[in-house]
Amino acid sequence: MLIDAVQSVGRFIKITAAKVHDKNFLKSLELISHSMIVFDKAYNYYHQFALWTQKQVFFVTRLKKSAVYTVVEVTRKHYRKKGIAKVLSDEIIEIEYHPEDETGKKQTKVTRKMRLRKVCYQDERNRYYEFLTNNFEITAEEVAFLYKKRWGIEILFKKMKQNFQLHYFYGENENAIRTQVWCTLIAQLLLTVIQKIAQTKKAFSVVASLVRIHLISMLDVCELLRSTHRSYHKVRGSPADSLQLSLFGLKTGGGLF
């Protein structure tokens, strides 16, 4: 899943079998020039990194421990100090990789080199990170900050697991599982839109619970979220047709249901 870093909603979703490697997801992305994508080290895919670099598409990820590279230049170096979040080093490295042909098959007899940037960072909890990027213009601190934004997708997954029935599936075949996942994603998106329109400070879990409770109630959802205790009395004392939406705009007072 690719999410928007600002809105925290899905921008591109592709459901695959468990046996399909995560890095294949990167092939499906259509990113415009000068865009920035952040992802986990499980998606490390040097051939795709080279293609993105040619198109001026930038990325930030973590370097795998098994990565083999040569340090070309060290532009920054600091010693580690406990309890202090800081950039420890900023290096230009060179990585060798095997390109792929048009069918996606790796050409093992062909070896190419690619220069990337490696940033070593220590957070306030003394955790050590090695970031990898093809952007040489932003600061090392910005590289670390961008990777922190990746936590947004973990929060999204946590919302989905906590508020929707994804801990078990209603069907066992592939189509049933796909349908349930898609329904969950659509419901999450709709609730996020409602939460934004209502401009409520209520947590997503509260919004999901209220909508679930009043799923078949004749209530204005936005009004319910703005004023939970007064909404029922207000609607009960008003004409029923005031909540009825009209296709041609002949009736007013409608809302989201």
Distance between the termini: 28 Å
Quickly give the structural class: alpha+beta
- Spans of at least 5 consecutive residues whose pLDDT stays below 50 are 245-257
Report the portion of residues in β strands: 15-25%
Mean pLDDT score, rounded? Answer: 84
Question: How does this structure look, described?
Answer:
The radius of gyration is 24 Å and the shape is globular. Among the domains are: 60-149, no CATH class; 156-243, no CATH class. It has a six-stranded mixed sheet. It has seven helices and eight strands; from the N terminus they run βββαβββββαααααα. The two termini are 28 Å apart. By secondary structure, the protein is an alpha+beta fold. It has helices at 46-54, 140-148, 151-163, 174-198, 204-213, 221-226, 231-236; strands spanning 2-3, 10-12, 36-38, 58-62, 70-77, 86-97, 112-122, 128-133.
Outline of this structure?
By secondary structure, this protein is of the alpha+beta class.
What key phrases describe this protein's structure?
alpha+beta, about 260 residues
Topology, please?
Elements: E1 2-3, E2 10-12, E3 36-38, H1 46-54, E4 58-62, E5 70-77, E6 86-97, E7 112-122, E8 128-133, H2 140-148, H3 151-163, H4 174-198, H5 204-213, H6 221-226, H7 231-236
